[in-house]
Design goal:
The protein is mainly β. The chain is 6% helix and 54% strand. The strands form eleven sheets. It has a 22-stranded antiparallel beta barrel. It starts with 5 loop residues before the first helix and ends with a strand.
């Protein structure tokens, strides 16, 4: 597989599809609403409606799939106001999502003990994979964006490496955009919410004509916030970037965004057995990241220095240290090194399917995707710039000052990715089989980041509000990343009899990565990774009746290894920040056992799905901050590490638990839903370097962060018929999360005591564990009110009605301990008009 010829692969794909074009994208389909009437022959059936998913790369009834999968329908997306990946927290069992600090639009996602959320280095893969229309999104940087027309979301829990490829040791999340309906229709959705937020989405469908149908959607979304920057500053980067980046000014408000997005879909059915789909997505988001709050200071050289600098600000006319440190979400944040950023995405998807006969079909999916982010800076320390003296009178009195950034990230990047998947499906009485070939690459074009490779400012002084760094040339910007995957897979199910199925699957993936590092100066250094790996699946399914399914399976999966950026230190001779060599990490592996029961009861008035799992991880990969040790400077001195975020191998871990989903329609017009999970995660072995970065020496003392043991969600909806087709809907939702550790370090104060500083950071260890959390949402709608030929729906809603604003993420950088908090209560009104 290593020498696989791409041109040959594309040629074979084209021949195999036989000019059939490309196939309809994998979709999770569900009739809107969980309860209603379906027609079986001439008999109407009341009960819970059927849901179709594609968790096994083919359309199947959710209840017949031996996979722990949740399908979030269009109605649920609307009712729960899911606008992007960050809104997925607690909507499915064992899925927990929060946003990271740093302005890169990266989510931290937890599923079955796996925490995914690597740094912006695009060669790093993640154990919980994200997809749009079945297309893998390899780099998480900038992934939190709005898509104009999301129709379904599938959440697949557990290793999915056989059909979904590598990087799915924890699970996969697949966003499915809407296709054309083939009938003339216009729909306008509008929403206004607290903090001046408003959203408008317009969709139009054209009627089918000669096998051709089309639709287009336009989204405009403005999200407001009640948090502002304490101060604004303009910093000039013209000198260091040779004019590529000029003056950047702080964002006035934080956690705001302005999004415009377009989704267009075209479907052509030239033959009864041939479907060609094309989808185009474009989005432009101008945003400021969520506020980062200074919680305190770690017991490191960088933390002690940061404490002294922040504490001194009161003597220079600035705030007191007690104002800087915020242990609750405030309306003012000290993030003046945070500027607004613009993220643009483009994607083209061509998918075609050809059914050769009743038993055999072919599908090919080709995708091009790009992401561009402008130059911006983002605060990581929670303190913003501090004033420091840069000139003194003869008696030592400061006479000139300049701003200093304790820790901020500078960024802009471009990503390009291409993928092609050719899939064959066989359906016969004794056998059901899926096989395919997959090609994927992503890269950052050289020279696209004007800041060059070192993208973090640590204790950086800006004399005259200008970056004093020496001008960088084309070489400093010439770093690049390249990732390529080539894979072949197959999964076969043999039907032993009407009740028992046996399934086996295998996938081979060849990963090749290249990282050209310019941080140490010319001539640069190239780091490469090339390795192939297998993933396996074995499954037994028993279906004694149409309403009951039992299954047991064993699955393996892996995440490829690679290299991540090296640590940062300050050269004591020159005072310049320098970066160490790239750090290699090995592939992570997951070995999972799972058993499940799916059942429907009382004429489909009750649906119960249960899964039990045990997974073992080896070479567990997790991004961490390191603030101990030293690296060699250009002058040959071993300088203490100031800050570093990189991916490394923790060691070994295991997780086991259960997940359940219950849907009930006890009476007409009432739907009750409950889902939840229990996960017990434990580190079995941790590398000593990782232990030291967490401030502990024993495995059992290392914080198990971002892994709540219990997650549950419940909802109840009652629909009251009104005059004509109009209906009144009343819905309430609740989500519970057990206590959680939100940071991966323990804090001490021995260094502060040795320096004669009276500062006790023990309170940070208390804050690091957050209490259990219950959030409530509610929505009341008057639906399908006739307006001539159109109908209208009006809704009022509220989110986080308990107004809990807990700390949800702590970044311990070696300079400060900084955190993010949950947003406060929001409420608004929605109006939809459909023709």
């Amino acid at each position: 597989m290593k020498g696989f010829d791409f041109a040959y692969f594309v040629g074979c794909s084209a021949i195999a599809v036989a000019a059939a074009g490309l196939a309809a994208p994998a979709e999770a389909q569900a009739i809107p609403g969980a309860e209603g009437t379906e027609q079986v022959g001439d008999i109407p059936v009341r009960g819970i409606r059927e849901i179709i998913v594609t968790a096994q790369k083919r359309s199947e009834n959710l209840q017949n799939v031996p996979v722990a999968v949740t399908a979030i329908t269009a109605d649920q997306i609307r009712n729960s106001r899911i606008e992007n990946i960050a809104d997925l927290r607690s909507v499915a069992p064992n899925l927990y999502v929060v946003t990271q600090a740093g302005g890169n639009g990266i989510p931290t996602t937890t599923m079955r003990g796996q925490v995914s959320g690597a740094a912006s280095n695009p060669t790093i893969d993640n154990g919980i994979s994200y997809y749009i229309d079945g297309v893998y999104l390899g780099a998480l940087s900038g992934i939190i964006f709005d898509v104009a027309d999301i129709e379904r979301i599938e959440v697949i829990r557990g290793p999915a490496g056989t059909l979904f490829g590598t990087n799915s040791t924890g699970g996969a999340v697949n966003y499915i955009t809407s296709g054309p309906k083939g009938q003339f229709a216009i729909r306008q959705d509008a929403s206004y919410a607290r903090f001046g937020s408003w959203r408008s989405k317009t969709r139009g469908d054209l009627p089918e004509w000669n096998g051709l149908s089309a639709s287009v959607s336009y989204l405009h979304n403005e999200r407001g916030s009640n948090v502002r920057n304490f101060d604004r500053i303009t910093l000039d980067y013209s000198n260091e970037t040779s004019g590529k980046v000029g003056a950047l000014t702080s964002a006035k408000h934080l956690d705001e965004s302005l999004t415009d997005a377009v989704h267009a879909a075209l479907r052509w059915e030239p033959l009864d057995d041939l479907t060609i789909d094309y989808k185009f997505d474009w989005s432009r988001q101008k945003s400021s990241p969520a506020p980062v709050y200074l919680l305190g200071f770690p017991d490191t050289p960088g933390g002690i220095a940061a404490y002294q600098l922040v504490a001194s600000q009161i003597f220079f006319g600035g705030p007191a240290i007690d104002d800087y440190v915020q242990t609750e979400r405030g309306r003012i944040a000290y993030n003046d090194t945070t500027t607004r950023n613009v993220t643009k995405t483009n994607s083209h998807l061509v998918v075609a399917s050809y059914r050769a006969n009743d038993n055999f079909s072919i599908r090919n999916t080709t995708s091009w995707r790009s992401l561009e982010r402008n130059a911006f800076t983002s605060n990581l320390d929670g303190a913003g710039t501090v004033q420091v003296p840069i000139a003194f009178a003869g008696d030592g009195t400061p006479i000139a000052f300049a701003p200093m950034a304790l820790l901020s990230v500078r960024c802009c990047n471009q990503l390009r990715q291409f993928s092609n998947e050719l899939q064959f499906n066989l359906d016969t009485d004794p056998l059901t089989a899926t096989a395919g070939l997959f090609y994927y690459n992503r890269r950052t074009p050289p020279g696209t980041n004007p800041f060059g490779l070192p993208v973090v400012d640590t204790f950086q002084v800006f004399p005259g509000n200008s970056h004093p760094g020496a001008p960088i040339g084309s070489f400093d910007r010439s770093f690049y990343y390249k990732v390529r995957q080539v894979a072949g897979y197959g999964q076969v199910t043999y039907h032993l009899n009407d009740a028992v199925d046996v399934t086996g699957g295998v996938r081979y993936t060849q990963d090749d990565k290249t990282f050209f590092d310019t941080s140490a100066g010319e001539p640069g250094e190239t780091y490469s990774y090339s390795k192939g790996n297998f993933s396996y699946l074995a499954n037994v399914t028993y279906k004694p009746s149409p309403d009951l399914l039992l299954y047991a399976k064993y699955v393996t999966s892996f995440i490829a290894g690679g290299n991540s950026a090296g640590p940062l230190a300050v050269d004591s001779t020159t005072g310049n920040v320098f970066q160490g060599s790239a750090i290699p990490y090995q592939e992570e592996r997951a070995y999972s056992w799972e058993g499940g029961v799916k059942a429907e009861w009382f004429d489909r008035r009750l649906r119960t799905n249960l899964a039990l799992f045990h997974v073992r991880y080896t070479n567990l990969q997790t991004p961490i901050f390191a603030s101990s040790g030293c690296i060699t400077s250009p002058g040959g001195l071993c300088e203490p590490i100031v800050s570093s975020q990189f991916t490394t191998n923790f060691g070994k871990a295991r997780a086991y638990g259960l997940e359940f989903e219950i849907t009930a329609a006890p009476i007409d017009n009432l739907t009750l839903v409950a889902g939840g999970s229990y996960t017990d995660f434990k580190y079995l072995q941790i590398d000593p370097l990782v232990l030291a970065s967490g401030g502990v020496t024993r495995v059992e003392d290392y914080p198990v962060s971002m892994r709540p043991k219990v997650l549950t969600n419940v909802s109840a909806e009652y629909v009251v018929p009104l005059d004509g087709d109009a209906r009144l809907s009343m819905r309430v939702e609740g989500a519970f999360r057990s206590k959680i550790v939100v940071g991966a370090s323990r804090f001490g104060n021995a260094g502060f005591a040795a320096a004669g500083i009276d500062y006790d950071n023990e309170y940070l260890n208390v804050m690091n564990t957050q209490n259990a959390l219950l959030t409530l949402n509610a929505r009341v709608s008057v639906m399908d009110v006739p307006l001539g030929r159109a109908n209208a729906t009006v809704s009022v809603w509220g989110r986080n009605l308990t107004n809990r604003q807990q700390l949800n993420f702590v970044a311990t950088t070696g300079v400060t301990a900084a955190g993010l908090f949950d947003n406060p209560v929001t409420y608004g009104v929605d109006l939809s008009i459909a023709l």
